[in-house]
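As a warm-up, study this chain.
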Amino acid sequence: MKVASKHTGIARLVFVGLLMLTAGPTLPSAASGEGVEKQIWVDVDPAYFLDPDFKFFGNIGARRETGESGWWRLVAEPSFRTKLHGRFHFAFGFGNFLTFNEVADDRWELRPFQRLDFNWPRGKFALHHAFRLEERYDYNTTTWNVRTSLRGRYRLSMCYQFGALQTDRFWQASVAGEVFATFTGEEGQMREQSRVTIGLDRSLRRDLHLRFELTWQKDGAFYGPVSGLDEGSSALYFRFRLAKKWGRSKSLREEASS
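Now compare it with the structure written out below.
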């Protein structure tokens, strides 16, 4: 018990440190509202389980940047996930991101990815770790010139479920920090650097739940440095998600926590 308690304390310190690292350059500008893009994301997340540890899943959604010269985007990302040895899971998928710009050429990004995720330490306040590798192909739909790059992502998240007065009916609060690193190549239009997210879930029944997320995001500059500066920008987005499951799934509690 003492060893588990020690590991939990260390993990929480790491989690807080990551939030401070990612939030530092972003939260002040978000609080002031200066130079912060506002985005709205709406998503449907279907999942079909062949058995509790093997599922096909995906994300279908639309995203909108609300400024006068903003953009809007359609997303489709079919994927599958399976359990490896012990607590580890492996997933891969193929993302499609079609972006319609007001002041620039439209973009179409193809994004195959591979992901390894696991919970450590486990327990009521388990930390969820996700390592993701993405191959990005960002096309200009007017000239069909392409920017290619290889990017890595690491996401650390924690959730707490409460209000379980009925079976599979509960609320869940979550917090997450994520960092991005481009290893090689030329990035496309979207150049995320870090994110901090807070979320709130509500299960409607065993196979259906809603989630709201509020995210601060730090972006790199798309058009390169201006007057010797390349400070990038910040974004604040509001995300609404509906998750629906079919098949022999795990309990909603266990699945929502991952």
